[in-house]
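Page 47, continued from p. 46.
Same chain as before, 128 aa.
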Amino acid sequence: RTGVEVARRLLEAVIDREEPLTIIGGDAEAVAELKRRYGLHDVRWHRAPARLKHNPDAFLAAAEFAAAQESRFVFICVGAPLQEAPPWAVAHRGRGRGIGICVGAPLDALSGRERAPPWMRELGLEWL
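Result:
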């Protein structure tokens, strides 16, 4: 499963509309649409700058923001391979609560803005 599919299932069946959800990355429009689409009341969003990998201070600020939240789930939307890279895990290790889900750029798909045609998704070619 892709990160977006895991996140969609969590949003539809696991995450309570009233509980906090932390999102690292993405843009304000996508986050607002995600809140509207899934009826979320407590989204804690950190705007991560472009080229986060090359900005150690911004990278650490994003990890610290995530760690400071009381969310069961943190959607990490800074794109591959950075979000899966060891530096993110090291920066976040021992600081926070909850489960980090590497959603990546597909935050747009969750908010309904962009998505590959169904035939591409069914063949596993969506992110090709």
